[in-house]
Amino acid sequence: MGICDGRVVIVTGAGRGIGREHALEFARQGARVVVNDLGVAQDGSDPSDTPAQQVVDEIAAAGGEAITSNHDVADWDAAGEMVQLAIDTFGSIDTVVNNAGIVRDRMFVNSEQAEWEAVLRVHVLGHAAPARHAASYWRARSKAGEPVAGRIVNTSSGAGLMGSVAQAAYSAAKGAIASLTLVQATELARIGVTSNAIAPAARTRMTEEAFADMMAEVGEGAFDAMDPANVAPLVVWLGSGESADVTGRVFEVEGGIIGVAEGWRHGPRFDKGARWDPAEVGAVVADLLAEAEQPTPVYGAG
């Protein structure tokens, strides 16, 4: 018995790294899993169904149920086909874990349009499209009077919450995902759907090169805080029926740490009650900043 017995789960970008561990843990907890991955190299080339199939084979060997999906999650119609594949194969869809992503590390002043378009497409559209089609299915079930316990788990990043040097496009995309999560949680609550996000730190193809020292494997017998498997338990719980009262949150997860991120909120303000003269603004801003909390430093700054 597991906390996801009977649930049907889509995990995007599930052929390697963090997504792979999500898929395996969902299966261990009784879910039937759609393992989505294009199997591409880090630059988006050479697609292959091998990584996804290997995960499916591993799940099947352990007695679980899973199927592969090589749909492009950033393509609106393809994302809908992926959701329909889950419904046609397993009879429903209960949880969507949006994990697929890419990076194009570059200092902002050197960044190119094509890099921005690629990163925003995969992350923002690649999160919005699968969840949008799943939400339509859940709304139809709700209108038909059927109980719904839909779960969306998005993948933001510390870069999206605090910013990261040389990752302007990635930071912008991950920040958009955090905001998307808030809107999904608010709009979909009435039909029985929650939406939460994680900001994970773990060893992946994207991080082990950029942060080689931090991501290095530890010696045998020691706790490997950067093992991507450490992220999966929180994601599986958020994707289960047990998390019904939790929505609109972004969780930071690293090693054995689970934290709740506290995002933008209204801070100090002063109301003149009339229009400001530009010459007056400086002194007021200085007072407000003196009263406000200092922001968390951007990753890689200093």
Give me some keywords for this one.
302 residues, alpha/beta, Rossmann fold, 10 helices, globular
Tell me, what is the CATH class? Alpha Beta
Write the CATH homologous superfamily.
Answer: NAD(P)-binding Rossmann-like Domain
What is the share of helical residues?
40-55%
* CATH 2nd-level architecture: 3-Layer(aba) Sandwich
Tally the structural domains.
1
The radius of gyration over CA amounts to 21 Å
Strand order of the largest sheet: 3-2-1-4-5-6-7-8
pLDDT < 50 stretches: none
Number of helices: 10
Taken from the alpha-carbon principal axes, the silhouette is: globular
Q: First CA to last CA: what distance?
A: 49 Å
How big a fraction of the residues is strand? 5-15%
| CATH fold annotation | Rossmann fold
Order of helices and strands: EHEHEHEHEHHEHHHEEH
Count of beta strands: 8
Structural class of the helix and strand makeup?
alpha/beta
Overview of the structural elements:
With 302 residues, the chain is an alpha/beta fold. It is 41% helix and 13% strand. The protein is built from 10 helices and 8 strands. It has helices spanning 17-28, 50-61, 76-90, 113-143, 158-162, 168-188, 207-210, 212-215, 232-238, 278-291; strands at residues 8-11, 32-36, 66-69, 95-97, 150-155, 193-201, 250-254, 257-260. It has an 8-stranded mixed β-sheet, with helices on both faces. Helix 1 (17-28) links the parallel strand 1 (8-11) and strand 2 (32-36). Helix 1 runs parallel beside helix 2 (50-61) and helix 3 packs across helix 4 (113-143). The longest helix is centred in the middle third of the chain and has 31 residues, at 113-143.
